[in-house]
């Protein structure tokens, strides 16, 4: 029976709940010192002077590093970024190189001391004077200066600009509305931390809370001017990332600090620093216009996003789903990107689609209401089985099934079209739904599988488990492909010295590493088969490879399982201490989240792995259903039930997959009802600085979440058939909730989060 798909518990679960899984900040070293950063208190300007005399006199202080004495680092250019895996998640300007301040909270110095408390104490005694300028803190007032970016991640950013106006004007029905979303922060449970250990001046080891050991290794080496490969990054366990764990500048600060004091140094960010120094989701102002004919067929779709960036080219790509969903003859998707003096925005779980589906799927609900059509019927009437921009068929697509399964399990038929029709006690009850979608990417990945003479198997790849289940699911695939139990398999990930894998982002880990893992196992079985056939004392001697099957750690003649030969016996008689194979998954064109230099060679890939990447578009789809109870006296919204149905290809582990979707839906409930980072417009400082005021859903905010999977393998993404699952769960959630609030109250709220002040 196949191991793949079984709902087994995490193989690293016991280590985690007993505190034995080692996270970055726990890699304590002999003679380790501690670094504490100093952050700018203005949003824009120059440092006029830094007086470190008082700080240096404090007990335990080893060094104070600022732009006056910092190591010179190389700014990151586009080419270096591509070489390190295109999806670099951090900032491109290295720290402490000049006296310029680009945002409040920017690192301007770092203090190193014998203890954390001493470093922190001395850091507060640094006297910094600034020449402050007026920072750009307000998106709306900066929009007149905003630029239209040409590209986003290798794709054209401005699509059919200005072309929708005509068809929209000629439409029988129209909706044209503005939807806004706030700044959000990732806030993974584990704060960012790095321990830096130099071996001489040319080799560096970083124990780092990162989503990509290969990416961090390559980019740190670049910034620090080291040979690629001379920075080893180790991250066996990572407590969440959601896009925030790229290479951010604290990692470079601690590397510099360790070089200066010639000792290992640890730097752990405070929760407050995570508001300014490790990225966020930028606020968006989205204008969505839809036009239909009299029967409700879409004639045009326009989606414009105003947003901002700071020190990178990244902007929130909220129009992405509007290029993929629904059959509309004309779609226009455009962006304006301003520059604000606040910590640099970055990828955050479903970058683009999370705020983008709020706007698009709210607008769809609005036009369906105009047309007096059921929102599901409206979506089915406008369903597309082709990628509307590329014209390709989707590789496998069951969105209509998602709607139907969702509607049935949720009890959608009990919904009334007219709002304010259902009450329970003093609560108004409403139902809402929305479509979910996320691209199905696949990046290059190499996976090495080693079998030792005693039958133990090790699988190694420079992948990461940020809480998603990578350890567990990889063990399942190898167990399945070799016919051995999961508990005989050791999974080695989170080390940049292993064969290359993509960073844990873009929902690509499973689709990328599993084809290579399976292929490596096939190569091992072939070698075992060859050894057995050639061995005169094997029961398989002289037989044809096609006749030979495998299970329970043995090869055997199919249909005659007594004629078997155990892997350990084959290896013992051949006097082999171990067998090893390393195969590589090829990227779907355009996807590049892997450092190519660390892929194993040879890199030929079986044709099957690549069969259809030119003929198909790879996307996952889903349907989200929410029931809300609204208290009109207090304006509070409670999500009472949630149903989430997804078409993500093959399910590799029913339990970890379900957890991913539940996590995504909870993330979406946070975005819908409570999450927002507020800035003081005068100074540009975030005023929601901790988890006490940046609200995320807690247990009482989270209803039962009913998760369903279509579960049909995608025949084109890989021989395994799994697309990604990490991000789609959040998409559509805030729209489903806002649509349910409309159904409950008759109030159409277009500004997230849906806080009580907007409902009374
Ligand atoms: Mo995800 S935002 O690609 O970590």
From TrEMBL:
This is Xanthine dehydrogenase family protein molybdopterin-binding subunit. It holds the Pfam family MoCoBD_1. InterPro entries: Ald_Oxase/Xan_DH_a/b, Ald_Oxase/Xan_DH_a/b_sf, Ald_Oxase/xanthine_DH-like, AldOxase/xan_DH_MoCoBD1, AldOxase/xan_DH_MoCoBD2, AldOxase/xan_DH_Mopterin-bd_sf. Keywords: Molybdenum, Oxidoreductase. Residues 18-134 form the Aldehyde oxidase/xanthine dehydrogenase a/b hammerhead domain. Gene3D superfamilies: Aldehyde oxidase/xanthine dehydrogenase, a/b hammerhead, Aldehyde oxidase/xanthine dehydrogenase, molybdopterin binding domain. It comes from the Bacteria.
């Amino acid at each position: 029976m196949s191991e793949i798909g079984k709902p087994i518990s995490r193989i690293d679960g016991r280590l985690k709940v007993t505190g034995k899984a080692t996270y970055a900040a726990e890699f304590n070293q002999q003679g380790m010192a501690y670094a504490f950063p100093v952050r700018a208190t203005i949003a824009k300007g120059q440092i006029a002077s830094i007086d470190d005399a008082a700080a240096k006199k404090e007990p335990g202080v080893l060094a104070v590093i600022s732009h006056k004495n910092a190591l010179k680092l190389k700014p990151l250019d586009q080419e270096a970024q591509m070489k390190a895996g295109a999806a670099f998640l951090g900032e491109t300007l290295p720290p402490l190189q000049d006296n310029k301040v680009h945002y409040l909270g920017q690192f301007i110095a770092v203090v190193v001391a014998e203890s954390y408390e001493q470093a922190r104490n001395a850091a507060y005694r640094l006297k910094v004077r600034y020449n402050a300028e007026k920072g750009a803190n307000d998106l709306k007032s900066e929009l007149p200066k905003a630029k239209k970016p040409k590209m986003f991640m290798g794709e054209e950013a401005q699509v059919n600009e200005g072309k929708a106006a005509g068809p929209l004007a000629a439409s029988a029905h129209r909706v044209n509305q503005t939807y806004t979303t706030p700044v959000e922060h990732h806030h993974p449970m584990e704060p960012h931390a790095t321990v830096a250990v130099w071996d001489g001046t040319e080799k560096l080891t970083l124990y780092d809370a990162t989503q990509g050991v290969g990416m961090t290794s390559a980019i740190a080496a670049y910034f620090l001017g080291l040979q690629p490969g001379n920075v080893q990054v180790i991250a066996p366990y990572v407590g969440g990332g959601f896009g925030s764990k790229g290479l951010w500048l604290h990692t470079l600060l601690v590397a510099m600090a360790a070089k200066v004091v010639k000792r290992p140094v640890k730097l752990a960010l405070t929760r407050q620093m995570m508001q300014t120094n490790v990225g966020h989701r930028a606020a968006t102002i989205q204008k969505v216009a839809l036009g239909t004919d009299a029967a409700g067929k879409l004639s045009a779709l326009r989606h414009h996003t105003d947003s901002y960036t700071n020190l990178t080219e990244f902007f929130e790509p909220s129009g992405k789903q509007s290029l993929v969903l629904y059959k509309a003859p004309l779609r226009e998707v455009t962006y304006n990107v301003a520059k604000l003096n606040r910590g640099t925005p970055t990828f955050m779980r479903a970058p683009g689609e999370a705020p983008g589906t709020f706007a698009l799927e709210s607008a769809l609900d609005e036009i369906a209401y105009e047309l007096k059509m059921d929102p599901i019927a409206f979506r089915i009437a406008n369903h597309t089985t082709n990628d509307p921009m590329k014209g390709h068929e989707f590789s496998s697509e069951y969105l209509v099934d998602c709607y139907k399964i969702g509607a049935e399990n949720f009890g959608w038929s009990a919904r009334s079209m007219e709002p304010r029709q259902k009450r329970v006690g003093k609560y108004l009850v409403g139902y809402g739904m929305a479509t979910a979608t996320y691209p199905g990417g696949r990046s290059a990945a190499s996976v090495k599988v080693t079998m030792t003479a005693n039958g133990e198997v090790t699988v190694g790849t420079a992948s990461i488990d940020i809480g998603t289940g990578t350890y567990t699911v990889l063990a399942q695939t190898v167990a399945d492909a070799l016919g051995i139990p999961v508990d005989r398999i050791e999974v080695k990930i989170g080390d940049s010295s292993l064969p290359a894998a993509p960073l844990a982002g873009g929902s690509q880990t499973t689709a990328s590493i599993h084809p290579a893992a399976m292929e490596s196992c096939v190569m091992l079985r072939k070698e075992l088969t060859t050894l057995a056939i050639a061995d005169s004392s094997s029961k398989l001697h002289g037989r044809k490879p096609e006749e030979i099957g495998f299970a329970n750690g043995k090869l055997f003649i199919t249909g005659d399982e007594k004629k078997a030969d155990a892997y350990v016996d084959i290896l013992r008689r051949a006097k082999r201490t171990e067998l090893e194979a390393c195969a590589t998954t090829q990227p779907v064109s355009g996807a590049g989240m892997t450092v190519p230099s660390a892929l194993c060679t040879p890199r030929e890939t079986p044709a099957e792995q690549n069969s259809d990447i030119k003929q198909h578009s790879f996307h996952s789809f889903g349907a989200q259903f929410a029931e809300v109870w609204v208290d009109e006296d207090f304006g509070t919204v409670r999500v009472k039930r949630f149903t989430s149905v997804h078409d993500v290809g093959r399910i590799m582990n029913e339990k970890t997959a379900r957890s991913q979707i539940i996590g995504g839906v909870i993330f979406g409930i946070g975005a819908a009802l409570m999450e927002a980072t507020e800035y003081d417009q005068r100074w540009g400082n975030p005023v929601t600085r901790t988890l006490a005021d940046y609200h995320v859903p807690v247990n009482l905010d989270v209803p039962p979440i009913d998760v369903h999977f279509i579960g049909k393998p995608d025949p084109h993404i890989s021989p395994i058939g799994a697309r990604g699952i990490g991000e789609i769960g959040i998409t559509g959630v805030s729209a489903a909730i806002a649509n349910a609030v409309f159904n409950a109250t008759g109030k159409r709220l277009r500004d997230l989060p849906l806080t009580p002040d907007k409902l009374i």
